[in-house]
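Message: I would value a second opinion on how I read folds in token form. Give me a protein, with the fold worked out from its sequence. Write it directly below this note and I will take it from there.
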Amino acid sequence: MEKYIIKADGKKEQYDEEKISSSFIKAGASPEIATAATKTINKKVKDNTSTDEIYHRALSHLRVLEPRVALKYSLKRAIMDMGPEGFVFEKYIAKILREYGFVAEVGQILNGHCVNHEVDVIAKKENQVCLIECKYHNSRGIKSDIKTALYTHSRFLDIEKAYREKDINNNTRFEAWLVTNTKCTSDAIKYAGCVGLKILAWHYPKVENLEYFIETKKLYPISILSTITEKQRDILFDSDIILAKELGSYKMDSLAELISVRQSRASKILNEASIII
């Protein structure tokens, strides 16, 4: 009997166990663990089960079988747990770009031909300057649409025009980027391809997408750790500690003091961070 599941946007789709197994393997599970975990999930999935419920069942099962894989499996949710606003996400993107050789700044005001603009992230490498609009969503099922793509590109054109007017002979190569932690609509992607707007999103493009840049250098956010509370996470964010790897510079006592926990708790946090990086 066919079973259907309810997606985050409310739409129904046929349950596909291959997608579950594939998601486990992408997170680093062996084929054997992926197969065993998928069989367990299959037995518990009923018709009209939500994808959210399936996710939590899968995560609980992985935490028992393979803690490291469970952490990576929760990456998308971890980014959504960065907070209600997008500023931490902007800082996260800047830190990721720095790991790839860019000089990156957050929240800069640039002069446009018509008006001034606050740019979420400016990333520079050699003669390349990337003007980046970050669209952060803290709930599933929300996509960045054509309006966002149009807005991002029009601001870019205004800034680039002002710069060219000042120095027409400069060989700086400007690029407009739209970076989001969810997905983009097909119209946004079509428009971006037409005007040369780069999109970096969840599962887009097929290669060198947001997950690729995170996974390649293990640039996981601290919100991926199950051993820290929301309050402790926010303290770390306020201290500009966003990447789990940044906890590697802390000793147990100094971390305990920073987030006001016992050293035994700090030890668990550092241990979990070391597992994933």
The chain has a mean pLDDT of 91.
